[in-house]
Amino acid sequence: MGADVLARFDPASPAALQARLDAWRDESNHERPHGAIGHFPPSSRYQLSLRRFPDTLPPVASEPAARLLRVSGQGFIVIDRQRDYLSEVIPSEEVEVRPLAANRVAVWSGPIRLTELPLGEPTTDRAV
Length: 128
Fold this sequence. Notes:
This protein is an alpha+beta fold. The chain has two domains: 3-44, no CATH class; 67-127, no CATH class. The chain is built from two helices and seven strands. A hairpin with a 3-residue loop joins strand 4 and strand 5 (104-109). The relative contact order is 0.11.
């Protein structure tokens, strides 16, 4: 990435560093050939998507008995003092915890069911 910029450049200020990194990014994307794409610059392969991203996302519909929990920066959620690892891919995001039968819950991220967990077990930091 920009490590080669930092190795050859001692910035006088954060603004000078940002200007150098911006120039490096532009060169890497628009001028420098990349072997994985036939020695063309990445910008020669870019196509604007025809799909539009909505300005605001619709709220996620949740079940009445569900709870929203925030995933920690380390990828854990805590349900009734029980700590379970989900994923570091979604730090600070909310997941929906839906009750199931027999002391179990399902954990959802939007429309994706991530896992099912047992409740009330004395273990902590259990990996999912």
